[in-house]
Every structure is written in C-alpha cells, then in structure tokens.
Here is the input.
Amino acid sequence: MAVRYFLTAALLAGLYVPVCQAVTTVSVSATASHAIPTTLLLQNRAFQQVTPGDTSSLDPWVAVNGAELEVIADTDPVSSALPNSLQVMIPSAATGSVGVSNPGYWGINVNSSWTYNASLYYRFPSESSYSGTLTVGLESDSGEVFASNSTTINGSQTSWANVFLTLTPSSSATNTNNSFFVTVNGSEAAGETINFALFSLFPPTYKDRPNGMRIDIAETLAGMKPAFFRFPGGNNLGESFDTRWQWNATVGSLLDRPGRVGDWGYVNTDGLGLLEYLYFFEDVGMQPIMAVWAGYSLDGDSEPEDALAPFIQQAIDQINFVVGDPSTSDAAALRASLGHPDPFYLQYVEIGNEDFFASDSYTYRWPDFYGNLSAAFPNLTFIATAYPFDPVIYPTPPHYDVHVYQTPDWFIENAFYYDSFERNGTTYFELTDNIQGEYASISTNASNLYGTAAEGRFLYPTVQSSTAEAAFMTGLERNSDIVFAASYAPLLNLVNDSQWLFSVNVGDEYLPSTLPTESGSLFWTISRNSTSNDVFIKVVNPASDDQDVLFDLAFTTVASTGTLQLLHGGQNDSNTPTTPDLVTPQTSTIATGQTFNYTAPSYSVSVITVNVS
Ligand SMILES: *[C@@H]1O[C@H](CO)[C@@H](O)[C@H](O)[C@H]1NC(C)=O
Ligand SMILES: *[C@@H]1O[C@H](CO)[C@@H](O)[C@H](O)[C@H]1NC(C)=O
Ligand SMILES: *[C@@H]1O[C@H](CO)[C@@H](O)[C@H](O)[C@H]1NC(C)=O
Ligand SMILES: *[C@@H]1O[C@H](CO)[C@@H](O)[C@H](O)[C@H]1NC(C)=O
Ligand SMILES: *[C@@H]1O[C@H](CO)[C@@H](O)[C@H](O)[C@H]1NC(C)=O
Ligand SMILES: *[C@@H]1O[C@H](CO)[C@@H](O)[C@H](O)[C@H]1NC(C)=O
Ligand SMILES: *[C@@H]1O[C@H](CO)[C@@H](O)[C@H](O)[C@H]1NC(C)=O
Ligand SMILES: *[C@@H]1O[C@H](CO)[C@@H](O)[C@H](O)[C@H]1NC(C)=O
Ligand SMILES: *[C@@H]1O[C@H](CO)[C@@H](O)[C@H](O)[C@H]1NC(C)=O
Ligand SMILES: *[C@@H]1O[C@H](CO)[C@@H](O)[C@H](O)[C@H]1NC(C)=O
Ligand SMILES: *[C@@H]1O[C@H](CO)[C@@H](O)[C@H](O)[C@H]1NC(C)=O
Ligand SMILES: *[C@@H]1O[C@H](CO)[C@@H](O)[C@H](O)[C@H]1NC(C)=O
Here is the structure.
C-alpha cells in the first residue's frame, strides 16, 4: 500500500496539514460550497458533394450495367449554388437495368421497419422522344433488391424536374454492405443521356426532422443528458477565408446550399445547416454554444481591422437568425418564413475559434466583435478563444474557451489546474474534444502528440487514457464555480462511458472534502442533488495499484448501502469496433455509512451514490 501525503479537511479552515498515512481519509462536508452547473458534450457530421474534373469527382458513385458516367459543370445547373451534375449516358446497345449506384457512407443500413425518402433531380440535356421507367432502390452487394419504386420520365423534360419516391424494404439486410441505385430500362433508354443532380436518401430521423439526425445516435446523445452543444464544430469555422463557414449558406432549400470544404479536408454539403442544428438542440433539450467567424482562418490569415465591418454584420445577422425579432430583422424574418417565428434559446456566443493561434490580431478583433455584438445583444454572454490572458485583451472576456490535447500523465498532473485561478468573475470553458481522434488524452508520447500509433498515439482510447481524463475532470467538477462547461466527442466507447458516468451522476451542489494530493494518484470529487439528497462520490484511480480510501461523511444520516458504478479495466484495454463492450460500467450495491472504506481498483472510475439527510 502506498504511503502518501494528503491534505485534511483542515485546509478548509486555512491550514495545510501534511500527514503520513497508509489509507487515504476523505472527510466530506455536509455543507455545499457552490452550485454545480451541469456539464457536457458533443459533436456531429455533414454530407459531401462532388467537383467536376477531379478524378475523385465521381466517388463513390459507380456505374450499373455499362452506363457511362461523368461529373459535368452543367450549362443549365439545377441551381446557382449547385453548378455540377452527374451525366449518365446509356450505351446504344444497352439492355436490362442501367444507371448508377452509391454505397453510402461505408454502407447503408437497410431496415424493413423504416420507410426511406428518396429524391433526385433530372433533366434531358437534349430533347428526345424517349419515355420510360426510372427506378430507385436499395440492394445488397450480391444484388438482392430490398426495396424499389418507379416512375415514368420522358425526353421532353429538358428543364430540371424532381422525383420523390419512398422505399419500404421487404426485409432487413443482414449487414450494411448495401447500395442505393437509380436505373432506367436499357432497352427503352438506349442512346439517351440524362443529367442528375441533388440526390437524397433519408431513413426516418430523430423527431422526424427533415435533413435531421440519425435516430440511434441522437437518442444515445440525448441519453447522456448533454447540457450544451458547441457548434458549428469548433475548428470547422474555416481553414481558409474562402472556405469559412457562413450561416446564410446553410439555411433554406438544399438547392441553395453550396457546401464547403470543411476543416478536415472533406466536403461538407451543409445539409446539416444552422436551422437543423437549432431544431436538434431543442429536440434534445440542450443549449447551443454558437461560434461566429471572427476575421481569422486557421491557415493564419487575419482580416485587417478596417475590413471587419461586413463580418461583424454577418455575425449580427447570424445571431438574429437565432434570436432576432422577425419584424425588425431580415435574418429573423427568414427564420420565421422557414417555420420558427419564435426565437430559439441562445445564451452563449463564442467569438472565433482557437484564436490563440492568431494572438496578435485578436487584440483588435476581440474588442471590435465583442463591442459591437454585446451592444446589439446585451443579454448574450460572449466567450473568447485566446489563451486566458495571452494576449491580454480588452474588454476582459467574461469567458475563455480553453483547449487541451495531451498525454494521460498531463491530465493526472493537471487535476489541480484550476484550483489556483483567481475567483474574480472570469470563467473558463474547458474544451477537451480532440481535433482529430475526438479524444482528449490522445497519446503517451508528450513530444509527438499527433504522431502515429507506433509513436504512442492512441488508435482508440484506453482505460489508462480514460481514467487520466476522469482524474482531470474531478478538478473540473471541484472548480465548477469557474469552469462552466466541458465537452468531449460523442463516440460510443470507453471514453464516453466514463464521460457518461460523470454527466449522468452529477448533483447541483459541490461538497467540499479533503483535497486529493496534487502530486498524488487518487482523485475524487463529491456533489449532492439537493432535491433527492443523493450524494455522488466519484473516485478516480488512474494508477497501476489498487488504492484504499476511507470516507467520512458529515451528515446526520447516511444510508447503510449505496450504489457503485465501476468502470475498470487493464491499462491498455480499449473498446473497439471488434470489442465494443470490453470495458463497460458495472453496477453493484456496496456497504456505506457515515464512515466506510472503499478500495478503488487500479485504472478505474467509481461512482458511489448514497442517500443522506
Ligand atoms: C430498425 O428499426 C427499428 C425501429 O426503428 C429499430 O428498433 C431497430 O433498432 C432498427 N435496426 C437497425 C439494425 O437499425
Ligand atoms: C413528359 O414529361 C413532361 C414533364 O414531366 C410531362 O409534362 C409530359 O406530359 C410527359 N409526356 C409524356 C408523353 O408522358
Ligand atoms: C412509391 O413512392 C410513392 C411516392 O412517395 C408512394 O406513394 C408509393 O407508396 C411508393 N410505392 C412503393 C411500392 O413503395
Ligand atoms: C462488405 O464488403 C467488403 C468489401 O467488399 C468486404 O470486405 C466485407 O467482408 C463485407 N462485409 C460483410 C459483412 O459482408
Ligand atoms: C424494358 O423495356 C422493354 C421494352 O419496353 C420491356 O419489354 C421490358 O419488359 C422492360 N424491362 C423491365 C425489367 O421492365
Ligand atoms: C419523408 O417524406 C415524408 C412525406 O413527404 C415527410 O412527411 C417526412 O418528414 C420525410 N422524412 C424526412 C426524414 O425528411
Ligand atoms: C452570405 O452573406 C454574405 C454577406 O454577409 C454574402 O457575401 C454571401 O454571398 C452570402 N452567401 C450565400 C450563399 O448566400
Ligand atoms: C464596431 O466595430 C468597428 C470595426 O468594424 C469598430 O471600429 C468599433 O469600435 C466597434 N464598436 C464597438 C462598440 O466596439
Ligand atoms: C434581456 O434581459 C432583461 C433582464 O433580464 C429582460 O427584461 C429583457 O426582456 C431581455 N431582453 C431580451 C431581448 O431577451
Ligand atoms: C481575473 O484574474 C485574472 C488573473 O489574475 C486577470 O488577468 C483577469 O483580468 C481578472 N478578471 C477580471 C474580470 O478582473
Ligand atoms: C435531482 O433529483 C431530482 C429528484 O430525483 C430529479 O428530479 C432532478 O433531476 C435531479 N437533479 C439533477 C441535477 O440531476
Ligand atoms: C476501514 O479500514 C480500516 C483499516 O482496514 C479499519 O481499521 C476500519 O475499521 C475500517 N472502517 C470502517 C468504517 O469499516
């Protein structure tokens, strides 16, 4: 058993008392020191579009039965925002079903409980006397057709027309190796050329929202009870000036959304636009933390101060789209015309993203954006994205958004990061979503955090990385008077299990207790739900040895049993697609009381829930 120094509850009276002891004793105050804001998370994904000329412009479309395919810059595009079409040429000797198919995003889930909405636009670039059947459907990679539906089209249609057909599979596919196909009868259409644009295939969505969210993912997220959602995806505000996210390019008809190259290099179609995001937040019951583009792109370009005015106005328009009055704002009137006359809930607006990379220009961009936006929206709260006090910016930001991607050891060593921060009204939004792997603790190699797996980067989060993050999170909960939010990627894995443990088991009050040792390897944080009187004791052991702890709860009555939720595994265990349930939280009943012993296993996160009065 490790011998360690610890701070006793005397610290609360201003005394620092190092004591040598074998079992850590944790005294828990029955009186709360501060209220805990609820915390948590998120992340998401958009669609993609194609660009003519590139060899990859067809990906992942493939020809069916000898059709010749080409992505063209259409002379008469379906809309000015969507200038390209997929031109399908039916060979003159064609027979059978001829056309195109698309395997989706790594496959398509074919579920006979669902009805899918299929939609496309088509036109004949040259008028012809053709009339025939167009079929859309879903099939397996061995050609088994699960669903199909047809309509008649003809060669007099030289302007764009929409086809909308529903697909109801007769059976579910056993795997996701399935494709969506669009074909014509080759005997009828031999020699014809047809242009297609804006295909869409949607299963039912969460709350049946058009362009909405996958039900399974949205329900999983909702189950984690997230308090907020930061959007449009942090870094996704723009890698360059030309590709910056612009709210007005993401609303209205899909035909009017040009899409953009997102910050990770692939195309976002912006089918998931500002309005879809806002409905999603309402449907899940979480609040947005909305970013506005603030004159800086991640490639290093900053707009000069005298060029900022139109971007400040665009940010004002964006906020008005969310909360403005339709009778005084065109952007708000647009929202009303799209079906939501009432304002959406919005409290937090983040000015820029990762402006610590552009520290110098933020000294003028922050005051200009903050000054104008806070004058236009006095009720909103604004968040700065430079490092706290580096550079020093005025007016002093009410909040900072801090990003951390680090090693497990860093997270353990920094569990006290916020304890020394001055309590003066400035608070911090601790953002731990990883820009690539979506994990906070991303590597064991501090000198090459973004290296390869062989160089120490985690392919999947491990029990070691997760417990280290949990240790850090005990510091976030303890300092929740100044750390008002923390976010993480929403993938369903070990990390999120631990995240889930933290988010679902949180009280509304923080109970002071003996502080963990700053340089130690056992961490805890204790909160209480003041309505139900449940106390949540979260104990994190990110070390390789089991550790004993004695809890001493200063309540008059403490239940004799409590519930233990334990996440525990081997140092390098990971939940992966092939071992999705290797490490999952296990629930059991344990003996509790005003004083009780607990052994925190190596590499574990424990949540002990016990009722008090
Ligand atoms: C199929 O749909 C039903 C009803 O929505 C759902 O319960 C089930 O999980 C779905 N199955 C798959 C494999 O998606
Ligand atoms: C051909 O299509 C056009 C537009 O869809 C329609 O108006 C017309 O009636 C069709 N003609 C025939 C012969 O089906
Ligand atoms: C084909 O789509 C139409 C239009 O949505 C729908 O009314 C019809 O029921 C569908 N037919 C089949 C066989 O799914
Ligand atoms: C799906 O298709 C891929 C590529 O053809 C193949 O490697 C994989 O085994 C298939 N999966 C299933 C479950 O059939
Ligand atoms: C294709 O069209 C030809 C000529 O109209 C017809 O004989 C044949 O039955 C059609 N094939 C299918 C699969 O509908
Ligand atoms: C599918 O189409 C139906 C009929 O137009 C519509 O009511 C439903 O909302 C659509 N579903 C989605 C997810 O867009
Ligand atoms: C969005 O608005 C800006 C002005 O704020 C304008 O320059 C841009 O063209 C608009 N984009 C679209 C797609 O409407
Ligand atoms: C608004 O922004 C402009 C720069 O476009 C700046 O000159 C002005 O000081 C700002 N107004 C406020 C109130 O900060
Ligand atoms: C702003 O806040 C004040 C005070 O809380 C409130 O009276 C007012 O209605 C709010 N204004 C808006 C536009 O929400
Ligand atoms: C809070 O304290 C920090 C660090 O001492 C300081 O830089 C910051 O300006 C202070 N905030 C306010 C609102 O005084
Ligand atoms: C506290 O407990 C009450 C009663 O069980 C519950 O309704 C409420 O949601 C809980 N509060 C929090 C912050 O979880
Ligand atoms: C806790 O463990 C210590 C050492 O094993 C033991 O002396 C003590 O009686 C235990 N306390 C309780 C409340 O079980």
